[in-house]
UniProtKB/TrEMBL annotation:
This is ATP-binding cassette domain-containing protein. The keyword Transferase does not apply. Keywords: ATP-binding, Nucleotide-binding. Gene3D superfamilies: P-loop containing nucleotide triphosphate hydrolases. It holds the Pfam family ABC_tran. GO terms for molecular function: ATP binding; ATP hydrolysis activity. InterPro entries: ABC_transporter-like_ATP-bd, ABCF_ATPase, P-loop_NTPase. PANTHER family: ABC TRANSPORTER ATP-BINDING SUBUNIT (PTHR42855), ABC TRANSPORTER DOMAIN-CONTAINING PROTEIN (PTHR42855:SF1). It comes from Streptococcus pneumoniae. Residues 81-124 form the ABC transporter domain.
Length: 127
């Protein structure tokens, strides 16, 4: 990564030099122009997209990922959740949508353990 960064910096410097339209008559300048074109191929080739596969699958001890059991939560007597039940199992997909102030962040904070429910319990499954 550091070598690529160094080559990209050199490429930028040489590109600025090329934009000043050097005369290609002198041998040194012709060699520098040739090196610029080689560097351009090298930098553009190395920054091309490559396929990267990452596998995050791990074996789970159980199917339960998270479970809300009769969870209630309120901010200053304003109920956000009331007797909320939810079971999220492995490979389930969930989406959290709603208007501002309806409890999306509160739900995530309850999952993360940053907030404690006023009633009920949040059970995190074992991994």
């Amino acid at each position: 990564a550091a070598l690529l960064h160094k080559k990209e910096q050199l490429y930028k410097q040489e590109l600025a030099w090329m934009r000043r339209q050097p005369q290609a008559r002198a041998t040194k300048q012709q060699a520098r122009i040739n090196r610029f074109h080689d560097l351009k191929k090298e930098v553009s080739g190395s920054s091309a997209e490559t396929d990267l596969t990452m596998n995050f699958e791990t074996s789970r001890i159980g199917k339960k990922v998270i479970e809300f059991q009769d969870v209630s939560f309120a901010y200053e007597n304003k109920p956000i959740l009331q007797d909320f039940n939810l079971l999220v199992q492995a490979k389930d997909r969930i989406g959290i949508v709603g208007d501002n102030g309806v409890g999306k962040s509160t739900l995530l904070n309850l999952i993360a353990g940053s907030l404690e429910p006023t009633k009920g319990q949040v059970v995190i499954g074992e991994t």
